[in-house]
Multifunctional fusion protein (Paenibacillus borealis), 624 residues
Amino acid sequence: MDVVTAEEMRALDRETIERLGIPAIALMENAGRAIAEEVIALCRRRGAGDAGYGAGGGSADGGTRSYGAGAAGSADGGTRSYGVGAAGGAGGGLRSYKAGAAGGVAGGSGDGGTSSYGAGVAGGLESADAEGRGLGAWAAGGGPAIQPRGFSVSADSALTLAAAGAEHWLVLAGKGNNGGDGLAAARHLREAGIAVTLVYAAAPESLAGEAALQRDAAAAMGIPAVVYGRDAVDLAACSGIIDALLGTGSAGAPRGAYAELIAAANASGNPIVSADIPSGLDADTGETHEPCIHAAVTVCLAFLKRGLLQYPGAGAAGHVVVRSIGIPAALARESGVRVSLLTPEVLRTRLQVDVSRRRSPEGHKGTYGHVLLAAGSLRMSGAGLLSARAALRAGCGLVTWALPDKLLPYVIGCAPELMLAPVAGSDGEWHAGTAAEVLRLSGSRDCVAIGPGLGRFEGDTEWLRRLWEETDSPLVIDADALNILADADYSAWSRRHPVILTPHPGEMARLAGISTAGVQRDRIGLALSYAAAHGVILVLKGAHTVIATPEGQAYVNITGHPGMGTGGAGDVLTGIISGLLAQGLDAAQAAAFGVYLHGLAGEHAARKRDNPAALIAGDIIEAL
Ligand SMILES: NC(=O)C1=CN([C@@H]2O[C@H](COP(=O)(O)OP(=O)(O)OC[C@H]3O[C@@H](n4cnc5c(N)ncnc54)[C@H](OP(=O)(O)O)[C@@H]3O)[C@@H](O)[C@H]2O)[C@@H](O)CC1
Ligand SMILES: [K+]
C-alpha cells in the first residue's frame, strides 16, 4: 500500500484527470460514495453493539491501529487487517494477519459488502449483508462453500441501512474539494434513507468547480442546508458527523468558522467520519493543529497519506480505511512514490521476503548463518544477552557473543545455545584495544552487530571506525555505538558492505543534531533524508517504526503494541535483524522484516499477559 504526500496526491489527481481523461467529478463521486458506505458500515456496527469506533476514535484493543483497504472494509475493533481484491475489505472477522504464505491478505467482503458471491475466499469471514444476516444464513461455515441457488439478484447493499430512520448525520462542508466529497456523500446517505443536514463553513456561493456542482445537486435533491455563522447549528443534535471541512489543500491551523466547527464537532460526543484526513491535520507530517478533528473513522481517498501514519495524527484519525476512487494504483509507483505501508504483501512482492521463514529439509546450522555480536558490559550485561537470544530465535544458525572477559562468569549458562568470545576488557568494560580481536572474530561471520550494552570508553570512535571500515559483512549499529557515531564525523569513513542503524528518537536526535521533538515532527521525512545523505539503512524506532533505504525508499511498520515500551525491546530488535541478515536476507529485507516480526511478536506477547503493562523484552523473544 503506497503512502503519499499532499503534493504527490495532487500530482496523481492531475495525472488521472489530464492524462487518463477521468473527469474530476467522477473521482469526487467515487469519494462521496466511499464515504457514505463507511458511514453506513459504522451505523451497522453501532446497531450491532460494536463499540469499537466510538466518538473520539481509538481502537478497542488499547492501541493497535487498523488500516483497511478495499470496498466497505472495516476492521474488528483494533485488529490490524489488510484486505485486497475487487470486493476486498478488511472483513469484520478476519484475523489472518500472521506472516505466512496466505496470511494477512485474504480478500473478502467487509460488513455490508456488495456481493453475495465471489468474496469470501478466506475462512472465518463474519460478514453480514444489508439486513445484518451473516453469510452463514446461506452456507454453514461461510467461505467458498456458498452455492448459487439458481437465479438470484443482489442489490447495492453497501448503501442501504435497515435502521436508517434512527440516524441523522450532519455533513460539515468546506469550500474546497474536500467539501465536495462530503456533499456527494450526503446524497448517497439521503438515498439510503438517512436524514442529512449540510452545514456549510463558508457561504455556499463561494464553492467553485466540482464542489459547486455537488452543492447544486444536493440542493436539487432538497437536502436541508445551514450556513455556520448565519444559521443556528447544534452539532450535538445528530447521530453522527461527516467532517468534510479541510483535506489535502489545507494549510496551517484551521481558521475562523472551520476552527469553530472542528471544536464543536469534537465536543459534541458524536462519532465523526473524516473525509480523506481529519480537518486540522497536516497531511504530510501528522502534526495536529489546534483544533484538529478527532475522528472515529477516516476514509482516506485513493492513497494513504503520510500524516495518517505519523503520530499524533495517527491518533486523531481513528480507524483508517483507504478507498479506491478510480485513480489507478499503479500510477503511484510509476510517478515515483517512495513510501509504503509495511504489509505482508509489500514484504513479499516489493521486498521479496519469504515471510514463511521456510527451512530447508537439508538445512543445518551452517545453512542459516552466523552472527557476531559485540555487546554488553558489566553494568549492562543483559542487553547483549537479549540481542544474542533474539538472533537465535530469528532463526540464524549460530551466534557468537564477543564480550569483556570479566563478564564471562556471569553469563555462562544464561543461554546455553550461545557461543561466548571473551575479549580482554578493562574492569568489565570495553577498551579501544579490542578492535583487532573483534575484527578477527568477524572474519568468518555473516553479519556483525555492535552496540547493545556497550557503554562508552576512551578511544571508542577509532574503535568503531576500524570495525566500520574493516569488517567484511553487513553491520548493525545500535545503542551506544550510535552515540559514538553521533559524536564522530563518520561521513568520511569508507564502507563496502551495508550498514543498518537502529536509533530510537533520542539517539536519532543526537545523530541528526536536532531535538527529539524535531525528530518526531516528521519521522518519515527525516528517515528518508538521513538514509540518503549517509548511505545507510535507517530504522527509526518508535510507534510506527520507519525503515528508510539509501536509495530513497521507506516502509512504515504498524505491527507492535504500546506494551513494548520497555527496556531491552530495542536490543531484541537488533538481534532479530542480525539473525535475519545472517540467513542471507539483504539489509533492506532484514531491517523491514525484522521490524515487522518484532512488532508482531510484541503483539502476541502482550496478548498473553493479563495486562500488557507487564510485558518485558524477554517475552518478545519467546513470542517469536
Ligand atoms: N483534486 C481532485 O481531483 C480530488 C480531490 N479530492 C478531495 O479534495 C481534497 C483536496 O481539495 P482542495 O485541494 O480543494 O483543498 P481542501 O482540502 O478542500 O481545502 C481547500 C480550501 O480550504 C481553505 N483553507 C485552506 N487552509 C485553511 C485553513 N487553515 N483554515 C481555513 N480554511 C482553509 C482554502 O481556502 P483559501 O485559503 O484558499 O481561501 C480552500 O478553500 C482532498 O483532500 C480530497 O478530499 C477527492 O475528491 C479526489 C479528487
Ligand atoms: K476532512
